[in-house]
Write a sequence for this structure.
């Protein structure tokens, strides 16, 4: 009869109760040590974040500038014509000399840089290309 009552009431022997309390104290102290370590890591991360943010910004600017420069085509020696747009001149040049691929020409991104030449006309065209090509 006593074993059936023990199961229902949840009675535990004194030795098991002492052992359980000891384990609970050890778990609580371990949890407190772990919380202190996490707080220490949080402080270290907060000290490192400004340095990493500046470094990431510098790297991002450098990579963006490199990509921008990689996508610029500069053509020299192409004389301007009054009846033809700069982008049409550039496209005609590409069609004549690049048989394997023809770049997508965006009319707003094809322009002559502002330069002062003695004869009064700039023979350089700078075109920023995208990554799309037409065949």
């Amino acid at each position: 009869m006593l074993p059936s009552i023990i199961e229902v009431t949840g009675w535990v022997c004194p030795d098991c109760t002492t052992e359980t309390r000891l384990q609970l104290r050890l778990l609580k102290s371990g949890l407190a040590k772990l919380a202190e370590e996490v707080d220490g890591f949080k402080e270290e991360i907060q000290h490192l974040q400004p340095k990493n943010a500046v470094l990431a910004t510098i790297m991002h600017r450098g990579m963006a500038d490199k990509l921008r420069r990689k996508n610029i085509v500069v053509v020299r020696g192409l004389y301007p014509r009054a009846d033809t747009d700069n982008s049409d001149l550039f496209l005609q040049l590409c069609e004549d000399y690049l048989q394997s691929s023809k770049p997508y020409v965006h009319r707003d991104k094809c322009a002559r840089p502002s330069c002062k030449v003695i004869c009064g006309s700039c023979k350089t065209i700078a075109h920023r290309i995208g990554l799309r090509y037409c065949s």
Q: What stands out?
A: Residues 25 and 31 are 10 Å apart (CA to CA). The chain has a mean pLDDT of 76.
